[in-house]
Design goal:
The protein has about 120 residues and is mainly alpha-helical. It has helices at about 10-20, 55-65, 70-115, and strands at about 45, 50. Helix content is about 55%, strand content about 5%. Strand 1 (about 45) and strand 2 (about 50) form a beta hairpin.
């Protein structure tokens, strides 16, 4: 397969052989450690075999790495998971900014009292 072919015309197997991240590793050989509780089994991607501890992570992975292979219900599940994760990130950023502002003014008031 040529590398100048658009990625949307390629199958997941073609992407796996052309992309260095998709080599022929088994699920146990991934460079990133995935921890799954002993009483649970990991969910694996049907396209590349990568394991995930939670179904939400698998849905996001499929939507980002294998978008052309998804049916309409999987695309909708990806959009919902993506929106939920964006909302969680937005809330985390808001809390982080609030903490930084609180620390700044706390140090400012402490400095004004000490000096």
């Amino acid at each position: 397969m040529t590398t100048d072919q658009p990625s949307h015309d390629r199958t997941p197997d073609d992407q796996r052989t052309d992309d260095p991240q998709f080599d022929d590793r088994s699920a146990d050989d991934w460079p990133l450690e995935t921890r799954v509780p002993a009483d649970e089994s990991p969910v694996e991607c049907a396209y590349c075999g990568r394991p995930f501890p939670r179904e939400e992570h698998l849905v996001l992975h499929r939507g980002l790495d294998h978008p052309d292979a998804l049916d309409e219900s999987e695309v909708e599940a990806f959009r919902e998971a993506y929106d939920a994760e964006n909302e969680e990130l937005r809330l985390f950023r808001l809390k982080a900014v609030a903490l930084l502002v609180l620390l700044y003014f706390g140090f400012l008031f402490t400095y004004s009292v000490v000096t």
